[in-house]
Amino acid sequence: MAEGLNYTFLFDTFFIALSGVPIALFVTIVSMLIALPLGFLLALTRINQVPVLNRFSQVYVSFVRGTPIIIQIFIVYASIPLILSSLFEKYNMNINVYDVNPIWYAFIVFSFSTTAILIEVFRSALNTVNKGQLEAAQSIGLSNFQAYRRIVIPQALVVALPNICTATVNLIKATSLGYAMSLPEITLKAKVAANVGYNYVEAYIDIFLVYIILCSVVEYGFKLYEKRLRKYKYIAA
């Protein structure tokens, strides 16, 4: 007869998994801080049909959409050390690239993936703002930067925020793949704890609960911020 769940382990490991939340949030925040400005700038190249950059953005988005993030992780985590090691050996630099903290690879992979998502988020949001407003702002002496900061971005952000929320939540969930880079986040900590007694079912339940709680809190925070932004929503006459 199969044994039931080990509730003592389930309870204890919940807090072990919870201790991985700071790393998951740190990776999420840093990756978003990198991806937000890059995504916005590349979205502008799409909207304004900037030569070369517009094509680069299209290929970039297609590449990220067409490849699983776990494959991107393996490529980055395996290729960057090899490339750097070859370069350091060539120039006689005594640096051990394999001592690099895996969190740096996490920043690269997750910001790379999230930037592509945000390009399309910002592109669609900016297209909802009437171009006449930008022209009107320029006609009264505002620069492009001032017009975007005061008029265009606040309105576009109202439209983009739900999708930014989704991208953020998906990024938080994607950090669970950080175990493939030996990143001590939620999943890795729970799985290591489960290795001793093979309590993997309990560990996965704890991982599930931690992510449900974390993502729900983040979604609630975005909803509160969205309510504050609604005052900028443009209503056509």
Structural write-up:
The chain is mainly alpha-helical and 237 residues long. Helices cover 76% and strands 0% of the residues. Helix 1 packs across helix 9, helix 6 packs antiparallel against helix 7 and helix 7 packs antiparallel against helix 9. The longest helix is centred in the C-terminal third of the chain and has 31 residues.
Query: Major beta sheet, specifics?
Result: none
Order of helices and strands: HHHHHHHHH
Report the strand count: 0
Low-pLDDT stretches: none
How many helix segments? 9
Mean pLDDT: 89
Using the alpha-carbon principal axes, give the shape: flat
Computed Rg: 22 Å
- The share of residues in extended strands comes to under 5%
Instruction: Report how far the terminal alpha carbons are from each other.
Output: 71 Å
- Based on secondary structure, the structural category is mainly alpha
Q: What is the helix fraction of residues, given as a range? A: over 70%
Question: What does the secondary structure layout of this molecule look like, with pairings?
Answer:
Blueprint: H1 7-18, H2 21-47, H3 53-66, H4 69-90, H5 102-126, H6 131-139, H7 144-174, H8 186-195, H9 200-229
Helix pairs in contact: 1-8, 1-9, 2-3, 2-5, 3-5, 4-5, 5-7, 6-7, 7-9, 8-9
